[in-house]
Amino acid sequence: RTDRERLWQALMEMAKLGATPKGGVNRQAFTDLDRQSRDLFIDWCRAEGCTIRIDAIGNIFARREGQEPDSPSVMTGSHLDSQPTGGKFDGVYGVLAGLEVIRTLNQHDIRTRAPIEVVAWSNEEGCRFAPCMMGSGAFTGQLGLEDMLARTNEENISAGEALEAIGYRGTDRVTPDHIKAFLECHIEQGPILEDTGNTVGVVVGALGQKWFDLTLTGLEAHAGPTPMSLRRDAMLGAAEVTQAVNRIANAYQPHGRGTVGVVNLHPGSRNVIPGQVKMTIDLRHFDSETLTLMAEELHQVIKETSQHHELEFELTPSADFSPEHFADSCVSSVRRAAETLGCSHMDIVSGAGHDAIFMGRVTQAGMIFVPCENGISHNEIENAEASDLNDGCNVLLHAMLEQAGL
Amino acid sequence: RTDRERLWQALMEMAKLGATPKGGVNRQAFTDLDRQSRDLFIDWCRAEGCTIRIDAIGNIFARREGQEPDSPSVMTGSHLDSQPTGGKFDGVYGVLAGLEVIRTLNQHDIRTRAPIEVVAWSNEEGCRFAPCMMGSGAFTGQLGLEDMLARTNEENISAGEALEAIGYRGTDRVTPDHIKAFLECHIEQGPILEDTGNTVGVVVGALGQKWFDLTLTGLEAHAGPTPMSLRRDAMLGAAEVTQAVNRIANAYQPHGRGTVGVVNLHPGSRNVIPGQVKMTIDLRHFDSETLTLMAEELHQVIKETSQHHELEFELTPSADFSPEHFADSCVSSVRRAAETLGCSHMDIVSGAGHDAIFMGRVTQAGMIFVPCENGISHNEIENAEASDLNDGCNVLLHAMLEQAGL
Ligand SMILES: NC(=O)NCCC(=O)O
Ligand SMILES: NC(=O)NCCC(=O)O
């Protein structure tokens, strides 16, 4: 059994780095605070006898040798970086749950057959340097390493330079070839476990995502002298599209999601009819064909709306991730561990992208969710219970033991 | 008859001050370019023998004495300031049409009984210093003089300081007491005259305006893991309100107008459900009771929408102008002049606010509209025909002669 207090203390110690007045954390990727959290993680791992490797994108791999050093390792981990107004648990929980597994194995002197590795993936949040999941993306070849290192932030500093500056542009060659399975603990970032009273989410996969940029162009005109019948109001089009996104997502439940998160009006003046609106659309579903269908329906609605309001439109895909179904072996290990430990649990689909999803494309992968208060994440008020976090960590320990063998 | 070429030349000469690459004008209130346009206007008026007075808010009054100097004057004018991306005609046409009237009277040596005055009102656009119609508002007591002088721009400079800096914080005491009538020429800023093939709009009044700021507050949450049924999406509320504004305005035609010109989302991120939307609503109608009814319907819709999407709302009025019905005497003078001159004309209601509306509260007032290309204004591509502009100016001349007497 993992140690609830020890896990909680580690989380609270890490949360001091970049702590914000409102109780959250601002520890963005490749900043000095990111460096401090990496240093601390490495210190803790070395104290447990782990060997450390750092690859070219700054991913940190801490390895606890197995009885069979040549056998593929069982890996866990998540990320240490946060959103600018992030919480104390998103990402860091998955890293420190991995550390807690190693501490528990050491404490009880348990030797696994396969090596155990804990990874801290670089820049999962993607706020300072886009895109998100940069470290696991580059590691798994889903994103190009050179491309990622060349990405610049608003100050025109490249990810490679920033990584170099904090001393984490590593030289170890680590490949996904010798990994038997990857498991990741994470807070749910949604309200379902809390709503259903479950402690552990057995993550069976993740929703696919299709993101779009939409520009609607009408005619900017004076709000007073322009009769209603002679308007080409881009905001009316945007309102219809927003409602359609909601309608389409609702039509494909329980897994449909549709969100309009950005809406920018031009010129954005009280008494001017908006001549142009630029907006974003985020569609998600667990079924690949349904997701395609949702995107087609969206396209159709945009065509009709544009025609109706005499608007021109430009619809551009900005991201496209297919749904991920995790390997049965990993999902079963997690479910069995939850049962063995008597944790209330349910199968759940991840609505968000995670490093484990990229890992699922190169090896067997799975995830363990624990509830977060009111389902709130990417927010300084993000909160989770010590006992839930420890339950998830215990499930991770047992699932990893099953995968690694004794 | 006024001189089409002379009027056009004056307009084109003035348009050089603050000319923009796209053929428009950027000559915002109380800038050095505003000073240059004022200097030029005064030079031209002095050359016609006018006396000049400048009041505390920078309004410029150019007076051509009448045969009966003590009789109340007949006044015309508009504004020289422009939007940041404004056109060559909005405002400046009304000022230079007044100058053209004086030039024509001088040319033909016509003496009117009542004095004639041409005014250039300060800061009609209100872009650098809010609110709009500052000069006529302060002159007519609709806006407080001290309050207006204290208004600051984004650089924290006060209107009073800016006026002082360009040398136009005047000391002449000019009051609305001795004005018989006020007439203003202006481009329509809408498409109705062009659409109906008329050259002159006999403005019978102006729509009342009710402006609102609306804040809708829901709950910011992650777009992936948050099921549709557990969302409190402020943007869905904003979309419904936008459509309701349109529906309400359409229900009260021909005079109803409803516009959502500003919509700001928080946090404004692709994969975050908007937790808050701040938006503006501009409702207009010619009938005061109908306008009140429209505002009530809006309020009701916002209540229902907020309840439906579990949002909180805050609705704050930000402007409230009652409809203006111009004095019969002025409207008749304009209509008769158009008939006498054989201009195709129609009665029209101004959708926009104008200095003449404030003047209508302290004396008899009227307006003359001429078409602008595609109804477009507040835009560098704003355009108008020399012959239409001259027709409107001729109507002004004849209407003023009727008011001033020979
Ligand atoms: N876990 C997470 O916040 N991922 C970001 C990408 C997404 O929107 O799913
Ligand atoms: N004429 C004009 O643009 N006035 C501004 C105020 C309004 O929106 O009516």
Automatic annotation (TrEMBL), chains A, B:
Keywords: Hydrolase. CDD domains: M20_bAS. One of its GO terms (molecular function) is hydrolase activity. InterPro entries: Amidase_Cbmase, Bact_exopeptidase_dim_dom, Peptidase_M20, Peptidase_M20_dimer. Residues 207-307 form the Peptidase M20 dimerisation domain. The keyword Hydrolase applies. It holds the Pfam family Peptidase_M20. The keyword Hydrolase applies. NCBIfam families: hydantase, PRK09290.1-3, PRK09290.1-5, PRK12891.1. Belongs to the peptidase M20 family. This is Zn-dependent hydrolase.
